[in-house]
Amino acid sequence: MRVVVMTDSTAYIPADVRNKLNIEMLPLNVLIDQASYQEEIDLTADDFYPLVRKAKELPKTSQPSIGYIKDKLENLANDYDAVISIHLSSGISGTYQALITASNMVKGITVYPFDSEISCMAQGFYVLEAAEMVKTGAAPETIMTRLNQMQKAMRGYFVVDDLTHLHRGGRLNGAQAIVGSMLQVKPVLHFVDKKIVPFEKIRTQKKALKRIVSLFDEDAKTGKSIRAAVIHANRPQEAESLKEELAEKYNNVEITTSYFGAVIGTHLGEGALGLVWYIK
Question: pTM for this one?
Answer without folding.
Answer: 0.94
